[in-house]
Design a protein that fits this description.
Residues 30-151 form the Alpha glucuronidase N-terminal domain. Pfam families: Glyco_hydro_67C, Glyco_hydro_67M, Glyco_hydro_67N. Residues 1-24 form the signal peptide. The protein is of the alpha/beta class. It has three domains: 41-168, Chitobiase/beta-hexosaminidase domain 2-like (Chitobiase, domain 2), CATH 3.30.379; 174-496, Glycosidases (TIM Barrel); 533-579 and 616-712, Alpha-glucuronidase, C-terminal domain (Alpha-d-glucuronidase, C-terminal Domain, Alpha-Beta Complex). It is built from 22 helices and 13 strands. It has helices spanning 3-28, 41-48, 60-77, 103-109, 141-156, 208-219, 239-252, 267-270, 282-298, 324-335, 357-365, 426-434, 446-450, 481-492, 498-509, 514-535, 566-570, 594-601, 611-614, 629-652, 660-692, 707-712, and strands at 52-55, 92-95, 121-128, 131-137, 165-168, 174-178, 224-226, 258-262, 304-307, 341-345, 376-381, 405-410, 461-465. Strand 10 (341-345), helix 11 (357-365) and strand 11 (376-381) form a beta-alpha-beta unit. Helix 14 (481-492) packs across helix 15 (498-509), helix 15 (498-509) packs across helix 16 and helix 16 packs antiparallel against helix 20. The two termini are 44 Å apart. The relative contact order is 0.08. The structure holds 4-O-methyl-alpha-D-glucopyranuronic acid. 4-O-methyl-alpha-D-glucopyranuronic acid binds at residues 180, 188-189, 230-231, 308, 312, 347, 386, 414.
């Protein structure tokens, strides 16, 4: 090597060794960047009068709150605040829960405490003895921590902080991540590396990531985590593993996060040495009671169990001629004395039931309405099939008025391009939450079912299948962090608007510059429709390739169970395409309230975005815009591709507003997304064209490869499978 080249080579290595880890921290810091404020004079001026932070109680949670506030204000505003200032004679920020407040301050808060629940917070600007204070309080210390994050978000997003008077509470009580993490650290449907939980080194080694994970979750109001995969391994319930779970619970506790585990229904046999797991067997009942006792002895605030039973080969009560109620209630009795909860999943479809898969969960569960114990909550996916780019809301929402139902969203993008595609999921989540079930008349939205304002239940909740792994940036794609963030914010308030969420996230994560915010926010909001268009437009669904669900596979027809094959879902033939779930077909529409049923059942009123979900239509069927179904479908695929091109153009203009590292990462990922959007378009159109027998309409690019080529693509090592 020539000397000059050698020096350059060495410098490059030095650059990567010393500069990259530092740069990578931006990705790692998520939405808690606390960038120095350069142009927000009002906030700085206002806060410069504040001399310090007064903390009224000595709890772990308040220590975290104080440190967060102190560091963040220093980082953002360069304030040299005293972290343990005295109240008298100073303008301060006061942190403390209700009972710790002086009578004078309590008086200033007035009836504020009536407006919040146990996890809620109040932020109020008050004046006592001629001094100005900002009080951040709650009924419990966790409310104070949530209040601190809210206050910091106001500053991060350049919102006014004068004359504050805010009272806010979470609208649901279980706001939880579901990790589909296996004990060997692989993650089912995980696309951001391996599991964070290093079971081998726990409990002795506490990775700083556990703390950072808890902090990130607390900052968006998440208060629970299920550590293990719903396709469960009973070993997690053995003393060897429970010791490790306990160590994690200890880290998460001061952040208000409870630990939950998945319970493998056959655990009494596998680790308990019993001959049966029959929920009515007294030996089994006692085994679970003892197991619960053992867990609560270690982890007094253990949240409870999440259970996938008699679904996709998992064991369950039906193996013993019992039903879901028997199974759930038996476990509920075991954890009830300790305040534990059972989250029983309704994701069931039977290999012996030839009926439309979309109808099966409703058919199986709705007759159980009112039969579950009061510490059971039934966890229902947002749609009746499986986390598709678009699904009509699950008909179970609203159909079980005597049973608490919790929402299950998928944050990891199993069917939406993994962590390679930029898709802003809060837009999808909002669409589902806003859907009107009509179960108690107009306005009975899914959000109202989930937050308990429709049926008054003690338990309410929203779960999100996590997209977090040990990648440096946590989620694989920098923009997938927005999906974690948005999930948390929506679980706190299911009525939040996805645009507000995108706005907040962008400001906290990247920049407050309007020239950056406005186009990038638009790009995020439109990204969801783009993925629907280039994967499954007009109500198509589940046409992803087999097993890994990466890329198109509408041709797959050779799997043992009919409903595992894409051909089952699109039903394309010479006469047309789509799944007839109307009265003339499987009558799945009858599972909705009459108003919704009517809407979906009639092809003329069915929203076109759901058309082929509910109807099988001729290729020449006329869409509302006058296009034939074939032309409309093809043009939607093209539109999806064009939308990704547009996302690329928008992103390319963002370079000057953000750091080079994240800019480049997103740029490369969008390039792949564009390539894959074209792959989706070409593969699907070539395949469906065999049936329609029609030319591609003007405006749709000609495929660059043959259908055989697309069919030949195999991905044996696709992640998450
Ligand atoms: C954890 C889909 C996924 C499975 C997942 C299952 C579930 O079928 O492909 O990986 O299993 O849903 O939600 O239980």
């Amino acid at each position: 090597m020539k000397p000059i080249k050698k020096t350059f080579f060495k410098l490059s290595i030095l650059f990567f060794v010393f500069c990259c880890p530092a740069l990578a921290q931006k990705d790692y810091k998520l939405w808690l960047q606390y960038e120095k404020k350069t142009n927000s004079k009002t906030i700085s001026d206002y806060l410069s009068n504040i001399k310090g932070i007064v903390v009224l109680e000595d709890t772990e949670t308040l220590k975290i709150a104080k440190n967060e506030l102190h560091t963040a204000l220093n980082d953002m505003l360069g304030n040299k605040m005293q972290a343990g200032a005295k109240l008298e004679g100073n303008n301060t920020i006061i942190l403390g829960s209700k009972l710790a407040l002086s009578p004078e301050i309590q008086k200033e808060i007035g009836s504020g405490f009536d407006l919040i629940n146990d996890e809620g917070f109040i932020i109020k600007s008050i004046s006592v003895s001629n001094k100005n204070h900002i009080v951040i309080t709650g009924k419990k210390d966790i409310g104070v921590l949530y209040g601190v994050y809210h206050f910091l978000r106001l500053i991060q997003t350049n919102k006014p902080i004068q004359n504050l008077n805010i009272a806010d509470s979470p609208k649901t009580n279980i706001r939880i991540l579901n990790h589909w993490d296996n004990l060997d650290r692989t993650i089912e449907r995980g696309y951001a590396g391996f599991s964070l939980w290093n079971w081998q080194k726990l409990p002795g080694f506490i990775d700083q990531r556990y703390v950072d994970y808890a902090r990130a979750n607390a900052s968006i109001g998440i208060n629970g985590t299920v550590l293990t995969n719903v396709n469960a391994n009973a070993l997690i319930l053995t003393p060897q593993y429970l010791e490790k779970v306990e160590a994690l619970a200890n880290v998460f506790r001061p952040y208000g996060i409870k630990v939950y585990l998945t319970a493998r229904f056959s655990a009494p046999i596998e680790i308990g040495g019993l001959k049966t797991a029959d929920p009515k067997d007294p030996g089994v009942v006692n085994w679970w009671k003892d197991k619960a006792k053992e867990i609560y002895k270690r982890i007094p605030d253990f949240g409870g169990f999440l259970v996938k039973a008699n679904s996709e080969g998992q064991p369950g009560p039906q193996n013993y001629g019992r039903d879901h109620v028997d199974g759930a209630n038996m476990l509920a009795d075991a954890v009830a004395p300790f305040g534990g909860v059972i989250m029983w999943r309704a994701f069931v479809y039977s290999e012996h039931d030839a009926n439309d898969r979309a109808k099966q969960a409703y058919a199986e569960f709705v007759p159980y309405d009112g039969k579950f114990k009061e510490n059971v909550i039934v966890q229902v996916k947002n749609g009746a099939i499986d986390f598709q780019p678009r699904e009509p809301f699950h008909p179970m929402f609203g159909a079980m008025p005597k049973t608490p139902l919790m929402m299950e969203f998928q944050i990891t993008q199993e069917y939406l391009g993994f962590s390679t595609h930029l898709v802003f999921l809060p837009k999808l989540f909002q669409e589902v939450l806003e859907a009107d079930t009509y179960q108690k008349g107009k306005g009975t939205t899914v959000a109202k079912v989930v937050d308990g304002s429709y049926i008054k239940t003690k338990l309410t909740g929203i779960a999100g299948v996590s997209n977090i792994g040990n990648d440096l940036n946590w989620t694989g794609h920098p923009f997938a962090q927005a999906n974690w963030y948005g999930f948390g914010r929506l679980s706190w308030n299911p009525n939040l608007d996805s645009e507000t969420i995108a706005d907040e996230w962008l400001r906290c994560t990247f920049s407050n510059d309007e020239n950056f915010i406005s186009p990038i926010k638009k790009m995020m909001i439109e990204s969801r429709e783009a993925v629907v268009n280039y994967m499954t437009p007009l109500g198509l669904h589940h046409i992803m390739d087999t097993g890994h669900h990466y890329g198109p596979g509408p041709w797959v027809s050779n799997l043992s169970r009919p409903e595992w094959n894409p051909v089952y879902y699109h039903k394309a033939d010479k006469n047309g395409i789509g799944f007839d779930r109307s009265k003339t077909g499987t009558n799945a529409t009858s599972q909705y309230a009459p108003e919704v049923e009517k809407l979906f059942d009639n092809v003329k009123t069915c929203p076109e975005k759901d058309l082929l979900w509910f109807h099988h239509l001729d290729w020449d069927y006329k869409l509302k815009n006058g296009q034939t179904l074939w032309d409309g479908l093809a043009l939607k695929y093209q539109e999806g591709v064009d939308q990704v091109k547009n996302m690329q153009n928008i992103w390319n203009k963002a370079e000057k507003y953000i750091d080079n590292e994240r800019f480049k990462e997103v740029q490369m990922l969008l390039q792949i997304q564009y390539k894959e959007a074209k792959w989706w378009r070409d593969a699907c159109l070539l395949y469906f064209q065999q049936y329609s027998g029609k030319e591609l309409p003007v405006g749709v690019e000609k495929p660059a490869q043959s259908l055989d080529y697309f069919k030949s693509l195999k991905f044996p090592f696709a992640p998450g499978n």
